[in-house]
From TrEMBL, chain A:
Origin superkingdom: Eukaryota
One cellular-component annotation, GO: glutamyl-tRNA(Gln) amidotransferase complex
One MF annotation (Gene Ontology) recorded for this entry: transferase activity
Protein name: GATC amidotransferase
Keywords: Transferase
UniProt lineage: Eukaryota, Metazoa, Chordata, Craniata, Vertebrata
Species for this entry: Promerops cafer (Cape sugarbird)
From TrEMBL, chain B:
Protein name: GATB amidotransferase
Keywords: ATP-binding, Ligase, Nucleotide-binding, Protein biosynthesis, Transferase
Domain Asn/Gln amidotransferase intervals: 394-509
BP term (GO), one: glutaminyl-tRNAGln biosynthesis via transamidation
GO cellular component: glutamyl-tRNA(Gln) amidotransferase complex; mitochondrion
Xref: HAMAP family: GatB (MF_00121)
UniProt keyword Nucleotide-binding, yes or no: yes
Family the entry assigns: Belongs to the GatB/GatE family. GatB subfamily.
Name of encoding gene: Gatb
SMART domains in the record: GatB_Yqey
Pfam families, per the entry: GatB_N, GatB_Yqey
Catalytic reactions on record: L-glutamyl-tRNA(Gln) + L-glutamine + ATP + H2O = L-glutaminyl-tRNA(Gln) + L-glutamate + ADP + phosphate + H(+)
Keyword S-adenosyl-L-methionine appears in the UniProt entry: no
Length: 108, 510
C-alpha cells in the first residue's frame, strides 16, 4: 500500500521536510514497510513499550535556581535581535498549497 | 430588571432552573430562550424549541515554584527579556529535561484537593507544532496518561441577587496534567515582526480539564473562582489571572433538548473571571442566533475581544491541528508511591509519597467556610463572602477576638460597612486604613452602649480618613456619647415638649 500524495503533502506541512525526489519518497515507503513488520507479532494483552529505559528511575531535581542569566550567550546565535529579544516573522508562514509550490510531489 | 449586573443584562440571564430570554429581541422574530438542564418548562418563544448551552473549561495554572519544570532557571514574572533562560529552555542541542520534584508535588496536592485518582504511573509526551515562542518545536506534556484523573469540584452560586440563597453545583474534573509553558511573543505590527522572550518557556503548568457540566458564564466564573481559591490555599499556584498565572479557555456549544451535542467552539484570550462570564454568555448567544438564522457553527478557535465584548475568529488557527504526539524519549515513566507501596531502601529525596502529601493538605475553602459558620454562627452566604475577599476572614476573626460583641453582629459591620468602603475605594483588606484593632475598639464602645449605632457609623466614616485618631477621641470630639443620666434625659425631653406646644396638643388630641 503506497503512501498517498495527500499524506506526503500533509507531512511536508507538518514537519517542514522536503521529499525532494522519488528517492526520498521511496525511502519513506521502505521505512513504513520495515516498521509494518511489527504487525506480524501478536501483541494481544501486552502493554506497549516506548523505551527500553522504562524501568529506570525518573530522577527528581530539587527546586533550586541553578541556571539562567546567560542572555548574551543565548543571543549570540540569533540572526536578528532587538534589545535582547529574539526576532521572528510576524506569524507562522505556512507552506504554500501543493499546487502553488515547487515540489517533487507536484508531478506524482 | 433592577439589580442585574451589566453582563447578565447583555447576554441573557441564565436563571438556574428557569428559562432566560435573550433581551433586545422583542418584537423581532420572537424570543429565544436558553436555560440550564433540570429547568421546568421554559418561558417565552411561542413554539420555538429552547436551547441548552454546554460549557467546558481548560485551565492552565502556573505552578508556584522557584525553578522551571525541566530546568534550573528561575520562575519570575517581570525580569529582563531572556535572562531567566537556560540552554535547555532555548532548546540548544545536547540538552535534556530534568524533572522538578516540587512541580510533581504541586500537581499531586491539586489532584488530591480536587478528589482525583492519582496515577501512580504517568507518562510524558511530545506535542509538536511550530511557533516562534516554542523553540523546540514541541511541548512536553502528558497526553496518554496524566498524573491525575476523574475528580470533582464543588462551587456555590447565588440564585438571586440579594445573596440570600445559595445553591451548590459540581463539575467533573477529567484530568490534571503536567506540561511546559511556552515563551512570550510580542507582536510588532509596525515593523512586521515578533519579538520573543523565553523567560516563561519551560515554566511548569498544571492543565486542569473540566468536563462540559456547566451551562452559562456565571457557572463557569464561579467554578474558576473556586479553583483559584483552592490553588491559592494549597500554594500550588498563586493563580493570579492578571499575571497570566491562571489562563482559561472555554469550550462552548448549544443543542436542543434530547438532541446530540452541537459543534463546539473554543474561546481563548480571556483575561479575568468577569470576562470569562461575558465571553461564555456572548458565545452562547452568538451560536443560538447563528443557528436560529439557519447558519452553522464551525469547529473553530475564537478570541474574546474585551473592548467590544464579543468573540472573533482567530487568524492563525485554521483547520484541525495534527500534533503528532509521541512518547518523550528522554523521560522514563513518573512513579509515585503511597504508604503501602513505599520502597524500603530508596533515597527519600527521590520518592514522592501520595499519602504523606494527603495528610499535610491544608483546610480547603469549603472546609474553612463550614468551620466559620459552625464556630461563629454566621450564615453560609457570609462565610462565602469572607473567603472571597483576600484577608477578610482573618480580619473578621481578629475583630471577634478583640471585642465582646457577638460574631453575628460583628459580621454585619465587616460585610456591610467595612467591605463597602473597601470596594468603593478599590482597596484590598491589607490596604484598609481601619485596622481590626480600631474596628474592635469602636465595636466595644457600641457594645457597652456608650454610643448609638448611628454614631458608630459616623465614627467609622471618620476613622476611614486614617488620621490616626482612636474611636474614643472621635466620639469626644464630635460629642457622640450616649447620655446615660436619667435626669439629664428627662430635662432634654421636657425642653423639646415645651418648645413644640402645638405639635404636642395635636398629638394628645389624637
Amino acid at each position: 500500500q503506497r503512501v498517498s500524495v495527500e499524506v506526503l503533502d500533509h507531512l511536508e506541512h507538518l514537519a517542514l521536510v522536503d521529499f525532494r525526489d522519488s528517492e526520498g519518497v521511496e525511502r519513506l515507503q521502505k521505512a513504513i514497510q520495515f516498521a509494518d513488520q511489527l504487525h506480524e507479532v501478536n501483541t494481544d494483552g501486552v502493554e506497549p513499550m516506548d523505551s527500553v529505559l522504562e524501568d529506570r528511575c525518573l530522577y527528581l531535581r530539587e527546586d533550586n535556581v541553578t541556571e539562567g542569566n546567560c542572555t548574551k550567550e543565548l543571543l549570540e546565535n540569533a540572526r536578528e535581535k532587538v534589545e535582547e529579544y529574539f526576532v521572528a516573522p510576524p506569524g507562522n508562514i505556512p507552506l504554500p498549497k501543493l499546487e502553488e509550490r515547487e515540489t517533487f510531489l507536484q508531478g506524482s | 430588571g433592577r439589580g442585574l449586573s451589566p453582563v447578565m443584562r447583555e447576554a441573557g440571564r441564565c436563571r438556574l432552573g428557569r428559562a432566560g430570554t435573550v433581551p433586545g429581541r422583542r418584537g423581532e422574530r420572537g424570543q429565544w430562550s436558553w436555560f440550564c438542564p433540570g429547568a421546568s418548562r421554559p418561558r417565552g418563544g411561542a413554539g420555538l424549541a429552547p436551547w441548552i448551552p454546554v460549557v467546558g473549561l481548560e485551565i492552565h495554572a502556573q505552578i508556584s515554584s522557584n525553578s522551571k519544570l525541566f530546568s534550573g532557571s528561575q520562575v519570575q514574572f517581570a525580569a529582563p527579556p531572556n535572562s531567566l533562560v537556560s540552554f535547555f529552555d532555548a532548546s540548544l542541542p545536547g540538552t535534556l529535561p530534568v524533572l522538578n520534584r516540587r512541580c510533581v508535588e504541586a500537581a499531586v496536592m491539586t489532584g488530591l484537593a480536587l478528589n482525583c485518582s492519582i496515577n501512580k504511573k504517568s507518562l510524558f509526551d511530545r506535542k509538536h507544532y511550530f511557533y516562534a515562542d516554542l523553540p523546540a518545536g514541541y511541548q512536553i506534556t502528558q497526553q496518554r496518561v496524566p498524573i491525575a484523573v476523574n475528580g470533582s469540584l464543588s462551587y456555590s452560586l447565588c440564585i438571586d441577587h440579594k445573596m440570600s440563597q445559595m445553591v451548590t453545583k459540581t463539575v467533573r474534573i477529567k484530568q490534571i496534567q503536567l506540561e511546559q509553558d511556552s515563551g512570550k511573543s510580542l507582536h510588532d505590527d509596525t515593523r512586521s515582526q515578533t519579538l520573543v522572550d523565553l523567560n516563561r518557556a519551560g515554566v511548569g503548568l498544571m492543565e486542569v480539564v473540566m468536563e462540559p457540566d456547566m451551562c452559562c458564564g456565571e457557572e463557569a466564573a464561579a467554578a474558576v473562582r473556586e479553583l483559584q481559591l483552592i490553588l491559592q490555599t494549597l500554594g500550588s499556584s498563586q493563580a493570579v489571572m492578571a499575571e497570566g498565572q491562571l489562563r482559561v479557555d472555554a469550550n462552548v456549544s448549544v443543542h436542543h433538548p434530547g438532541e446530540p451535542y452541537g459543534v463546539r467552539t473554543e474561546v481563548k484570550n480571556i483575561n479575568s473571571i468577569r470576562f470569562l462570564a461575558k465571553a461564555v454568555d456572548y458565545e452562547i448567544q452568538r451560536q443560538i442566533e447563528e443557528l436560529e438564522n439557519g447558519g452553522t457553527i464551525l469547529n473553530e478557535t475564537r478570541a474574546f475581544d474585551s473592548k467590544l465584548g464579543c468573540t472573533v475568529p482567530m487568524r492563525d488557527k485554521e483547520g484541525k491541528q495534527d500534533y503528532r504526539f509521541m512518547p518523550e524519549p528522554n523521560l522514563p515513566p513518573l512513579i509515585l508511591y503511597d504508604a503501602k507501596s513505599l520502597p524500603a531502601n530508596m533515597n527519600h529525596q527521590q520518592v514522592i509519597n501520595i499519602d504523606w502529601i494527603h495528610e499535610r493538605l491544608p483546610d480547603l475553602p469549603s472546609v474553612k467556610r463550614e468551620k466559620l459558620v459552625e464556630q461563629y454562627g454566621i450564615l453560609p452566604e457570609h462565610s462565602f463572602t469572607l473567603l472571597n475577599e483576600d484577608g477578610l476572614a482573618e480580619f473578621f476573626e481578629s475583630v471577634v477576638k478583640q471585642t465582646h460583641m457577638k460574631p453575628k453582629k460583628v459580621i454585619g459591620w465587616i460585610l456591610n460597612d467595612l467591605l463597602s468602603y473597601l470596594n468603593q475605594h478599590s482597596l484590598t483588606v491589607k490596604e484598609s486604613p481601619v485596622s481590626s484593632f480600631l474596628l474592635a475598639d469602636l465595636l466595644n464602645l457600641l457594645e457597652k452602649k456608650e454610643i448609638s449605632s448611628t454614631a458608630a457609623k459616623r465614627v467609622l466614616a471618620e476613622l476611614w480618613k486614617g488620621e490616626g485618631k482612636t474611636p474614643l477621641e472621635i466620639v469626644k470630639e464630635q460629642k457622640l456619647e450616649l447620655l446615660q443620666d436619667q435626669n439629664e434625659l428627662e430635662w432634654i425631653c421636657q425642653a423639646v415638649i415645651d418648645g413644640h406646644e402645638n405639635e404636642v396638643i395635636m398629638m394628645v388630641l389624637g
